[in-house]
Design brief:
Blueprint lengths: L5 H11 L4 H8 L3 H8 L7 H11 L4 H29 L7
Length: 97
């Protein structure tokens, strides 16, 4: 697993707080099975799960929470841009690059 993969980062953040999978599951509402799959790189992180984990892992650190929110907002802005471009291409308004 890559050191900057979602699973590696999630595991590092969890261990840094000295939480078990069960503890993170209890705090975040994400089932332990899904957390295990994420940490093992066997599951993609969707925005809903990511949001739940960000809220849980960044709860008591304003700087980390602010950085996480900036990342989330950047992701959503890029996603919306891609959706809009897709609509334009689908409608024949814009050519594909």
């Amino acid at each position: 697993m890559e050191p900057d993969s979602v699973g590696a980062v999630l595991g590092m953040l969890r261990r840094r707080r000295r939480w078990t999978i069960a503890g993170l599951a209890r705090r975040s509402g994400v089932p332990p099975r899904i957390l295990l799959q994420l940490e093992a790189g066997q599951r993609a992180l969707d925005p809903e799960l990511g949001g739940m984990l960000v809220q849980t892992l960044a709860t008591d650190d304003p700087a980390i929470r602010a950085m996480a929110m900036l990342c989330c907002l950047t992701f959503h802005a890029d996603l919306e841009r891609r959706r809009a471009l897709n609509v334009l291409v689908t409608c024949g308004v814009a050519g594909s690059a």
